[in-house]
Amino acid sequence: MKVKNKLVLIVDDNRVSNFFNKKIVIETEAIDKVVTIESGKAALDFIDPKKSLEPYPFFIFLDLHMPSMNGWEFLEAYNKIEKVNNCSIVVMYDKELLPEEAMQLNQYDFVKATTSKILTKDFVTAFFNENKHIVGQLKCS
């Protein structure tokens, strides 16, 4: 069962990672739509209700290491904007987080998990199941 009008946003500058990560999220059969965006700035514009006609995402998978506006800068900007819903962010990394980076992420209550940059179906399914209160009854396979 898909949850209608429930959007997942993947923010990563790597098109190959986006292709595979989008495929993994779609395979859970839990979310109605997955959008990939290649920069933090474009993602902020996408979620701005004044600029976008898309539904507000319920989950954002965010790469920390991007050129231009990186994931850290995105988190800081996102922390300051008005939110339409209680969006949960999963931070993706391509190298292990340093202890001070993990502590820095803890300051953002909307960051719910961290994972390696290439998602797995098991991780995404478990994450959706743990957070189904956010979007209603998800049924992940």
Please give the structural blueprint.
Layout: E1 3-11, H1 15-27, E2 31-37, H2 40-47, E3 57-63, H3 71-80, E4 88-93, H4 99-105, E5 111-116, H5 121-130, H6 132-135
Helix pairs in contact: 2-3
Explained architecture:
By secondary structure, this protein is an alpha/beta fold. It has one domain: 3-Layer(aba) Sandwich (Rossmann fold). 37% of the residues lie in helices and 25% in strands. Strand 4, helix 4 and strand 5 form a beta-alpha-beta unit. The longest helix is centred in the first third of the chain and has 13 residues.
> Quick one: CATH class?
Alpha Beta
Examine the secondary-structure arrangement and name the CATH architecture: 3-Layer(aba) Sandwich
Number of strands: 5
How much β-strand is present in the residues?
Answer: 15-25%
Please report the distance between the alpha carbons of the first and last residues.
9 Å
Strand order of the largest sheet: 2-1-3-4-5
How much helicity do the residues have? 25-40%
Outline:
globular
CATH fold category name: Rossmann fold
* Domains, number: 1
What is the average of the pLDDT values? Answer: 85
The unreliable regions are 137-141
Discrete helix count: 6
CATH superfamily: Response regulator
> What is the structural class?
alpha/beta
Main sheet: strands, sense, barrel: 5 strands, parallel
- Radius of gyration, in angstroms, nearest whole number: 14 Å
Query: What's the SSE pattern?
Result: EHEHEHEHEHH
